[in-house]
Design a protein that fits this description.
Number of domains: 1
Distance between the termini: 48 Å
Helix content: 55-70%
Shape: globular
Radius of gyration: 21 Å
Structural class: mainly alpha
Order of helices and strands: HHHHHHH
Largest sheet: none
Length: 143
């Protein structure tokens, strides 16, 4: 039975602290934050097949760059899947995404993007391929 009589009424609520967040809530917040780190919305659409945290773990960025590996991967994937398929399309998506996040927008020149795309580690692409293949195989076997 709950009582509605205030206990220690003279003390600040700051002394009582706050409720602990559930592990699941923390993981969902981290996943949401990772999705927001990717342009084009593909990371949200393919979150089950290619978890954003998996891509983030594979990225080996040592420095802050205009095109971090996670951003480059998602831009490259959207470029491959788009009807346009041009580097200019991928750069435009990254620019729009960065503008929305109020970050420094890269130039429209595709040279930096192409260089970043070529610098994606082959091991990263292979690991993502294996992850997607494994999940698709599991989905097929459960049908």
């Amino acid at each position: 039975m709950l009582t509605k009589i205030p206990f220690l009424t003279g003390f600040s609520t700051l002394l009582f602290g706050s409720a602990k967040k559930k592990k699941q809530d923390i993981l969902q917040a981290e996943r949401r934050e990772l999705r927001e780190q990717c342009p084009g919305g593909l990371s949200s659409q393919l979150a089950e097949e290619i978890p954003p945290e998996f891509v983030s773990q594979l990225a080996s960025n040592k420095r802050t760059r205009v095109y971090p590996q996670e951003v480059t991967f998602w831009a490259f994937l959207s470029q491959v899947l788009s009807e346009d398929g041009s580097c200019a399309f991928a750069v435009a998506q990254v620019q729009e995404w960065m503008r929305g996040r109020k970050q420094r927008v890269p130039s429209s020149d595709t040279g930096s993007y192409v260089t970043a795309r070529q610098a994606l580690p082959e091991s990263m692409i292979k690991s993502i391929h294996v992850e997607v293949f494994t999940k698709l195989e599991q989905n097929l076997s459960s049908v």
